[in-house]
Amino acid sequence: MQSFSIRDLRERSGALSREVEQGNLAVITRHGHPLFISVPFSEELLNQGVHITLATRLFREGDISLGKAAKIAKMSIAEYSDYISRLGIPLVDYGKEALEQELAYLENTL
């Protein structure tokens, strides 16, 4: 997710437009603090609404946790987990090293 300042909106509006056209979220900041998020207009947005679309995009990109995504989507963690599972989005996305650490931990505790 790319970040744009208020000044960037005036000077680099084309770059923001390209980000959105590519389906990417962008954060708009004022004095270094997040002000708002641009969410591309899509079929998903029309069907699911802003809350669920935003939560799913941020979760899929690894920007927020499952619990925060569920809260943004206005669902319980169980409901949201079921929703993203139906979309084929993994609940847990371990890298190779993290997965090996988890497996080693499990082997030691059993």
What features would you highlight for this structure?
alpha+beta, YefM-like fold, three-stranded mixed β-sheet, 110 residues
Major sheet: arrangement of strands: 1-2-3
User: How many individual β-strands?
Assistant: 3
CATH topology: YefM-like fold
Largest sheet: 3 strands, mixed
* CATH homologous superfamily assignment: YefM-like domain
Mean pLDDT: 86
The shape, in one word, is globular
Portion in beta strands = 5-15%
What order do the helices and strands follow? EHHEEHHHHH
CATH architecture label name: 3-Layer(aba) Sandwich
Described by its quaternary structure, the protein is single chain
Topology:
Layout: E1 2-5, H1 6-11, H2 13-21, E2 26-30, E3 33-38, H3 43-48, H4 50-60, H5 66-73, H6 77-86, H7 96-109
Protein model, in words:
With 110 residues, the protein is of the alpha+beta class. The chain has one domain: 3-Layer(aba) Sandwich (YefM-like fold), CATH 3.40.1620.10. It is built from 7 helices and 3 strands. The protein has a 3-stranded mixed β-sheet with strand order 1-2-3. It is globular, with a radius of gyration of 17 Å. The chain starts with a strand and ends with a helix. The mean pLDDT is 86.
State the gist of this model.
The protein has 110 residues and is of the alpha+beta class. 58% of the residues lie in helices and 14% in strands.
